[in-house]
Amino acid sequence: MTIAGATSADLLDILQPAMLSPRMISEMEEGFDILKSAFKVAKFPDEKMAFLTKQWYTGILARIRINAFRIECAGGLYEDLLQAAAASVEAEGAVGNAVYMLPSFYNHDCDPNTHIIWIESADAKVMALRDVEEGEELRICYIDASMDRDARQTFLSQGFGFHCTCLRCMSGD
């Protein structure tokens, strides 16, 4: 979209980038080299590619990695959506990923007070999982909250680049 001029190169700068391991950065840099070579072979004009630097590319991928939501095919009655979504995750049934700006600002908690519900039009709605106090931050769980503490910590560190300090993790649960 940036190359086509449909959006600016700094569109996702408002989102915080993930903390990346040296291995992840290396993989992204390899991907950048492949992408840059493909654009050269396709003879894209240099002026259209001026924004495309290794730093920009890894920064965008980091922001997408930590803020993307899985897009899954789920259908049927509303009551069946949770079961269908769980089956889709189990079967790795995602058809893609998308960044939704407002839901991307929700922070993680292993004992969240809200959950994002995706409806057929790919719109996001937030559902409270319990009573939420006035002024309380709305938080979602980025992962499968049924995992034990060590598994959650590993998954969040490797997949999202942070060490979880929510009350549940700090209590050792």
TrEMBL record:
Pfam families cross-referenced by the UniProt entry: SET (PF00856)
UniProt domain SET: residue ranges: 37-143
A GO cellular component entry from the record: nucleus
Cross-referenced PROSITE patterns: SET
Domain of life: Eukaryota
CDD domains attached to this UniProt entry: SET_SMYD
PANTHER family (alphabetical): HISTONE-LYSINE N-METHYLTRANSFERASE ATXR4, HISTONE-LYSINE N-METHYLTRANSFERASE SMYD
Name of the protein in its database record: SET domain-containing protein
